[in-house]
Design goal:
The chain is of the alpha/beta class and 245 residues long. The protein contains 11 helices and 5 strands, in the order αααααβαβααβαβααβ. The chain folds into 2 domains: 61 residues, no CATH class; 169 residues, 3-Layer(aba) Sandwich (Rossmann fold). The radius of gyration is 23 Å and the shape is elongated.
C-alpha cells in the first residue's frame, strides 16, 4: 500500500520517470540489496533518462523530417554517386553545427539528397538541438501569406532561432522579388549564428544566376557559401519503394 501511494505521489508531482523506475525496481529482487543512497541514485537516473527521451521525441516531432528514421549509419556507400565518405564522417559529429557551418547537397532527383539531410537532422536532434525540415517553395509561400496577416517578422524570427534548418528543393522554381528578399533575410539572420542544410537540383555554381537579382544574389551566396560543405552528387537514382537508402 505504501509503495502504491509513493508511485501515485510521484506521478502527481509529474516525476514520471522516477515513478516508473520505482515501480520496476521494487519488483526486482536484486534491487533489495541496494542501500538507500544507491536506490535513490538509480531513480534519479531514471528520471533524467525519461526527460531526455521526452525532449528527443519533442525535437523530432517539431523537426518534421521527411525521413524521420534516416540515420548516417544506414548510408549505402556502395551506390555510385560520388558521396565523400570522409566528409560524411566529419559531419557525423556536431562540430560543424557548433562552428555554424552550412552543408549543401546538390544533384539530380532521387540521388538521396533529402535522405542524407534528414539523417544529419536526426543527428542534431539526438544531440539536443532544435531542427526544422522545410521545402523551400512551401516556406516561401507561407512567408508570403504571413505578410498579409501581420506575422511575417515573427515567422522570420522563428526561422532564425532554429539551430539546424533544412531547406529542401532550393531554387527549384524561379524566385519572385519578395521571395529573394525573404531568402536574404533568412540567410542574414542565420549567418555565423546557426547551421543550414540545403538540398538543390541546381548546382552551387548556378545559384547566383538562379536567384536573379545580382545584388541580392551576391549577398545571399556570399553568406551561404562561405565556409560551407559542398557535396555534389551524381549518378542513378537510389530511391526505393519504402523510401530507405
Amino acid at each position: 500500500m505504501l509503495n502504491e501511494t509513493t508511485i501515485n505521489t510521484l506521478n502527481a508531482l509529474k516525476i514520471f520517470g522516477m515513478a516508473k523506475g520505482f515501480a520496476e525496481r521494487i519488483a526486482t529482487p536484486q534491487h533489495a540489496e541496494l542501500d538507500h543512497a544507491e536506490f535513490v541514485g538509480l531513480l534519479v537516473q531514471d528520471e533524467k533518462t525519461h526527460r531526455e527521451n521526452q525532449r528527443l521525441r519533442r525535437l523530432l516531432k517539431n523537426a518534421r523530417l521527411r525521413f524521420p528514421s534516416a540515420c548516417l549509419e544506414d548510408i549505402d556507400y556502395r551506390h555510385p554517386r560520388d558521396l565523400p565518405k570522409a566528409v560524411i564522417r566529419e559531419l557525423s559529429t556536431t562540430g560543424w553545427i557548433d562552428a555554424h557551418r552550412n552543408v549543401f547537397f546538390t544533384g539530380p532527383t532521387g540521388i538521396g539528397k533529402s535522405w542524407i539531410a534528414c539523417a544529419l537532422g536526426n543527428l542534431a536532434a539526438r544531440a539536443g538541438l532544435t531542427v526544422s525540415y522545410l521545402r523551400a517553395p512551401k516556406l516561401l509561400e507561407a512567408l508570403q501569406q504571413s505578410r498579409g496577416d501581420g506575422t511575417h517578422l515573427k515567422a522570420l524570427s522563428r526561422l532564425a532561432k532554429v539551430q539546424v534548418l533544412i531547406l529542401d528543393d532550393f531554387l527549384i522554381t524561379p524566385l519572385t522579388a519578395h521571395e529573394r528578399k525573404d531568402i536574404f533575410e533568412i540567410v542574414e539572420d542565420r549567418y555565423q549564428a546557426t547551421a543550414t542544410i540545403i538540398c538543390s537540383q541546381c548546382p552551387v555554381k548556378d545559384w547566383h544566376t538562379a536567384i536573379g537579382d545580382p545584388t541580392l544574389a551576391d549577398a545571399i551566396c556570399d553568406r551561404l557559401v562561405h565556409n560551407a560543405y559542398k557535396i555534389a552528387l551524381k549518378g542513378p537514382s537510389v530511391r526505393s519503394r519504402d523510401g530507405k537508402e
